[in-house]
Amino acid sequence: MRREEKALIIQDLSEKFANIPYFYITDASGMSVAKTNKLRRLCFDRGIEYVVVKNTLIEKALETLDTDYTAFNESVLKGFSGIMFHPESGKAAAKLIKDFLKENKDSIKLKGASIDGGLYVGHDQLDALTNLKSKAEMIGEVIGLLQSPAKNVLGALQSGGNKLAGILKTLSEKEAA
């Protein structure tokens, strides 16, 4: 590979890392061609871009960013590396890896992930990544929590008004009798 080709790959990766806040670095070494094709097909079906790139090129692309990715240099960027990009969800790739592992035991390993600048290193982080909530889910929960006290007050006022109306109706019926 010539320097010009490497420079283009580094530039392309740098743009993806800067524009897509969620990426996963995986190790799929040792998988058969059939399993690799199945993984790529699954990625395509779920809207995840999967690319295999040399570690040195990944490292150089990460150096161009503001976030400190030196934790990846020590343990993540060793051996075979494939990168999964998903522009909308931080946990889509984690779910894909987990689903793929159900059918293909010990075929793919999570080496590291970056979710909105937060770094996750190691395959043991996979469960934590699948349980991450998206920004929209978090905003929905906060709005629900903020609305809850107001709904309780309105409910209490409405039920109290119905009780008061019932008491007044009973008293007026007693006076008429």
From TrEMBL:
The keyword RNA-binding applies. CDD domains: Ribosomal_L10. Keywords: Ribonucleoprotein, Ribosomal protein, RNA-binding, rRNA-binding. Forms part of the ribosomal stalk, playing a central role in the interaction of the ribosome with GTP-bound translation factors. Belongs to the universal ribosomal protein uL10 family. HAMAP family: Ribosomal_uL10. Part of the ribosomal stalk of the 50S ribosomal subunit. The N-terminus interacts with L11 and the large rRNA to form the base of the stalk. The C-terminus forms an elongated spine to which L12 dimers bind in a sequential fashion forming a multimeric L10(L12)X complex. This is Large ribosomal subunit protein uL10.
